[in-house]
Amino acid sequence: MTIPTVRYEHVAFDLDGTLIDSRADLAAATNHVLRSFGLPEIPPESVFALVGEGARRLVERALGPDRRALVDEGVVRFLEHYRAHLLDATDLYPGVRDALAALAHRGVALSVLSNKPADLSEQVLAGLGIRALLGEVIGGDSLPTRKPDPEGLERLRRRTGTARERMLLVGDSAVDVATAAAAGTAFCGVSWGLDPRALRAAAPSLVVDDPAALVALVLGA
Question: Which among 45, 43, 130 has a CA at the least distance from the CA of 93?
Fold first, then answer.
């Protein structure tokens, strides 16, 4: 359905670092894995830069190239711990709830495209009370591919029949920038994410500093 009064009819959101501040819980799960193997922990700030390409890549990076034999078991331990603690400290970034509600009120389709497993994404969104504001949620295990492959974003676009030029991906990482580019859709970065320096290095044409500015962008205000 065409919504002529808004700039973008469908907005797909990355999850970690975009809608939710999950830094503390991700860092805790990562360091749990390292401790379980008798390895030293790493500073939480170092973990943040490892997030964005799914649990396996996070564990691989945390363990390092010399411990590839530990990765499979490390992923199991990471997901087991994270599943039990995924809402210990995780919360929405300030203003996100109001921004989603404002966009939904105007009829904008809202969805999530994350490399976090789909069931964990669903649990977080439900636990933080925003699942009802969103349509489809695609996680890192929903399809044979994941970001930066464009298939997930294309699937979301097709499900709502949105014209490519009226679709917007919002994210905080270079992976998100590459995903939008591969899909031929617009991208807007958020400056409050997990690794702002990496986002800036990817040189997105649009970046917002708060959710209210994102609402204005989407609505064409």
Answer: 130
Count the residues in the chain. Answer: 221
Percent of the chain clearing pLDDT 90 (strictly above): 86
Domain count for the chain, please give it: 2
Structure tokens at 154: 């294309």
Same domain for 16 and 27, yes or no, is no
What pTM does this model have?
0.91
**C-alpha distances in Å from residue 67, one per residue of 1, 26, 59, 62, 198:** 51, 20, 10, 10, 25
AA letter at 107:
G
| Residue at 197 is within a domain | yes
Please state the φ and ψ torsions of residue 188, each to the nearest 5 degrees.
-130, 125
- Strands 20-21, 186-190: pairing kind: unpaired
For residue 38, give its domain range: 23-85
Condensed to tens digits (0 to 9), the pLDDT of residues 143-161 reads 999 999 999 999 999 999 9
Domain limit, last residue, from 63, 85, 107: 85
Annotated catalytic residue, options 14, 21, 25, 176 = 14
**Do 39 and 108 reside in the same domain of the chain?**
no
Residue with tokens 């331990």: 77
In a domain, 1, yes or no: no
Distance CA 25, CA 101 (A): 26
Is residue 175 included in any domain, yes or no?
yes
- The answer to whether residue 2 is domain-embedded is no
Catalytic-residue membership of 141 = no
Residue 74, H or E segment:
helix 71-85
